[in-house]
Design brief:
Elements lengths: L1 H20 L6 E2 L5 E6 L2 E6 L9 E6 L4 E5 L7 H22 L2 H14 L2
Antiparallel strand pairs: 1-2, 2-3, 3-4, 4-5
Length: 119
């Protein structure tokens, strides 16, 4: 039973990261700076990056009512190889989530447009 839960956790972690990088999830800002969230069915998924040590970054899943279901970090992902891979995955996913939640692409487009208008 524990092994299947571990596989489910890895699968969930990987799928959230992958779907984020592919742009399939819509991320929003939260009330806490540096934490972004998306809603999946009846669950609120949050992502937080630790820029100094990505192994401390995490994804948390809450019921919409607020109860925390699980917290996943690269450190929870098992062997060292998978842990290192997960660390890179979450770093990339966090950057994509942040970029989307902060509407970075639109801001860059506006700045580029404004610069082109300058003489």
């Amino acid at each position: 039973m524990l092994l299947s839960v571990s596989k489910k956790i890895k699968s969930l972690f990987d799928t959230i990261c992958m779907k984020t990088v592919l742009g399939d999830l819509k991320w929003d800002k939260t009330e806490i700076s540096g934490i972004f969230q998306t809603i999946i069915d009846l669950y609120n998924v949050r992502i937080k990056d630790d820029e100094e040590n990505h192994l401390n970054s995490y994804i948390e899943v809450y019921k919409i009512a607020g109860d925390k279901i699980i917290r996943m970090s690269p450190m929870d992902m098992g062997d060292q190889h998978y842990c290192d891979e997960s660390s890179r995955w979450i770093e990339q996913a966090y950057r994509c989530a942040r970029r989307q939640a902060m509407n970075v692409d639109a801001a860059l487009d506006e700045i580029i447009k404004a610069l082109k208008k300058m003489k």
